[in-house]
Amino acid sequence: MYARPRRLRRTQIIRNLVAETKLDQDMFIYPHFVVPGKGVKDPIDAMPGISRFSLDELIKDVEVGLQLGVNKILLFGVGNEKTEDASSAYAEKSIVVETLIELKNKFGDDLFVATDVCVCAYTTHGHCGLLKDGSVDNDSSLQVIAQMALAHAEAGADMVAPSDMMDGRVGAIRQTLDKNNLTETGIMSYSVKYASSYYGPFREAADSSPGQGDRKSYQMDFRNSKEALREAELDEEEGADILMVKPALAYLDIIAEIKQISNLPLACYNVSGEYSMVKAAAEAGFVAEQELVMENMHAFSRAGADIIISYHTRDILEKGWM
Ligand code: PBG
Ligand code: ZN
After folding, report:
1. pLDDT tier at 150 (50, 70, 90 boundaries)?
2. Confidence tier at 67 by pLDDT (50, 70, 90)
3. Over 90: is that where the pLDDT of 80 sits?
4. Within-domain flag for 262
5. In a domain, 86, yes or no
6. Could you give the number of structural domains in the chain?
7. Residues 321, 69: Cα–Cα separation, whole Å
8. DSSP assignments along 173-208, one per residue
9. CB–CB of 166/142 below 8 Å?
10. Is the CB of 276 under 6 A from ligand 1?
């Protein structure tokens, strides 16, 4: 026997030498929830370690995070004013706009801020678009989504991240931004977003559950993968700067396929339910948290993700798990 693969597994140094996948702190983006008020630090029950912050508390938390190397965040606003037409989503003084202005004043380009662009936290019905005759209307929703993206871009967002899955949203946003001379603001598109039960804990955090029905008429069917390629291609054509697959763990095949067909940077979103499952199993003593988390992160990278959006980011960097 001449060929012995085990030779390359003998010591930790050799294993590190030949490791095909290596993670880097630059890959990680940490999600943050901002709520109205002052002095609010409201833990999310289903997501141990994650809280919703009011602006003043968020600033403090971001400051601590920055010292640990958490220099990229994805910001979610939780609106307290919900209307049928989602008008508070693109208001000049929306919670996200206020937060962006403050963050950019304080941290400038030391902090990268992408903002989630979607109306579900601002509509009475909780859908990601506007309703017309009881169903989510694509083209009128585009207007609102583009206005929301514009408000964020004007307030200093480095990138906007549309998560609504309406057709043509990337093009509509790009056009609106360009028309307003915001040609430098990027679009990180939730290109391939599946209708998933893994979003459960997030909907509690963002108070964004649909009151009636589900999101299956706009988010993707988990039985499909060719359709994912089509979504990614369309976003690229429409001017997306970064593509994203969401969720991540059950969709590694999709990450790998999209990596093959696009030269754009590819992100994956390790979503709330994926985080909660790991946390719950770890708290029950069923799994070793650090090892499990790092196994998952390497799996994303091995599949082809260049960027990982994860609630575990803080633990990974703070506790030196990398
Ligand atoms: C809003 C949005 C959702 C997530 C990100 N943006 C929820 C949904 O579409 O229902 C999920 C994030 C997570 O679960 O961590 N459109
Ligand atoms: Zn939404």
Report:
1. very high
2. very high
3. no
4. no
5. yes
6. 1
7. 13
8. HHHHHHHTT-TT-EEEEEEEEB--GGGHHHHHHHT-
9. yes
10. no
201: in domain: yes
Phi-psi region of 25 (alpha: psi -120 to 50; beta: other; left: phi over 0): alpha
pLDDT bucket at 204, cuts 50 / 70 / 90? confident
| CA separation, residue 36 to residues 100, 139, 229 (Å) | 14, 30, 38
| pLDDT, average across residues 161-186 | 98
CATH value at residue 209:
3.20.20.70
pLDDT in tens, 31-59: 999 999 999 999 999 999 999 999 999 99
Single out the residue of 143, 117, 115 nearest to residue 130, CA to CA.
143
- C-alpha 186/C-alpha 176 separation (Å) is 12
Q: Which domain holds residue 167?
A: 24-242
Contact 256, 173 (CB under 8 A): no
Q: How far is the CA of 202 from the centre of ligand 1 (A)?
A: 6
Query: Measured from the CB, is residue 248 less than 6 Å from ligand 1?
Result: no
The reported pTM is 0.97
Residue 270 counted as domain residue: no
Query: Ligand 1, residues 76, 96, 118: which to mutate, most atoms within 8 A of Cβ?
Result: 118
Q: Report d(CA 169, CA 74) in Å as an integer.
A: 19
